[in-house]
Design goal:
There is one protein chain. The protein is of the alpha+beta class. It folds into 2 domains: 165 residues, 2-Layer Sandwich (Beta-Lactamase); 64 residues, Arc Repressor Mutant, subunit A. It contains 12 helices and 5 strands. Strands 2-1-5-4-3 form a 5-stranded antiparallel beta sheet, sandwiched between helices. Helix 11 packs across helix 12. It is globular, with a radius of gyration of 20 Å.
């Protein structure tokens, strides 16, 4: 524990986000987790939550960002409690918070085997959470044994990370076009660029153009991360507002835009 504490204390000396990312990744690996995210919502801001994760971001990080939506059971727990959430496949069937388990379990498609979510509060933030995850199978008792280190890491990460979150004093509103929102929403439902083009009556190249524009506006580099960020910002419509997704048959050339 003393060895880990020395690592955690060094988080407070990080003077850039990049340095903090690298230091947190080292701390997480030292206690058995490859993936992590830190997300907080500022008390004075109505914009996007502040989000920091391992670099480069993995598919799990994008999924964990989705768990940080305000209407999510994970965040409902974190807003009201300080106790951690522990998830492993072996215990999921017996967890009373079944809905929360299903949300974590969705990340198994990326190879997730265990996760711990630690709520963080204070320091000018309405709510926050540090989530650590691993690709390696762990027994629940092994995950629980790591809880003291994870809780301590979350405390130091919040102390160091809230300074960067506080710099988001003015968050510009992201404005997506109707077409960009449509392309992102169909992407979130698993449609390929070609399928989206057929659904919207535009070319696949135009779909790529809209997705790249949306990614640029959202400050991300992949369409799947764009979906995660747009969802977290509440920019995507509910799935029942779309059609069933049956691909139409076009006997005419697809429109260019």
């Amino acid at each position: 524990m003393v060895r880990h504490l020395d690592r955690f204390v060094r988080l407070l000396d990080c003077d850039t986000e990049k340095k903090l990312q690298r230091q947190v990744s080292g701390c997480a690996l030292a206690i058995g987790f490859e993936c992590w995210t830190y997300t907080v919502s500022l008390a004075h801001s109505t914009g996007a939550p502040y989000f920091l994760s391992e670099e480069p971001r993995s598919g799990i990080s994008d999924h964990l960002l989705l768990l940080c939506r305000n209407d999510d059971p994970v965040m409902a727990h974190c807003r009201e409690h300080t106790t951690p959430l522990v998830w492993t496949p072996e215990a999921a069937a017996h967890d009373p918070q079944e809905k929360t388990c299903r949300l974590f379990a969705e990340a198994t498609s990326f190879g997730l085997q265990a996760a711990i979510g630690v709520p963080v509060h204070g320091l000018g933030c309405r709510w926050g959470v540090v989530i650590l995850a691993t690709y390696h199978p762990l027994k629940r008792r092994d995950v629980v044994n790591r809880l003291p280190q994870v809780q301590l890491l979350a405390t130091y990460l919040h102390e160091a990370g809230h300074r960067y979150a506080a710099r988001m004093s003015r968050v510009e509103q992201v404005h997506l076009t109707v077409r960009e929102i449509e392309c992102l929403r169909w992407t979130s439902l698993g449609k390929t660029g070609w399928e989206i083009g057929r659904l919207l009556g535009i070319t696949e190249r135009t779909v790529v153009f809209h997705l790249e524009n949306a990614s640029h506006k959202l400050g991300v580099f992949s369409r799947h991360h764009a979906v995660a960020r747009a969802t977290a910002l509440g920019l995507l419509p509910e799935s029942d507002s779309l059609t069933t997704g049956e691909l139409p048959r076009y006997n005419r050339p697809l429109a260019p835009g």
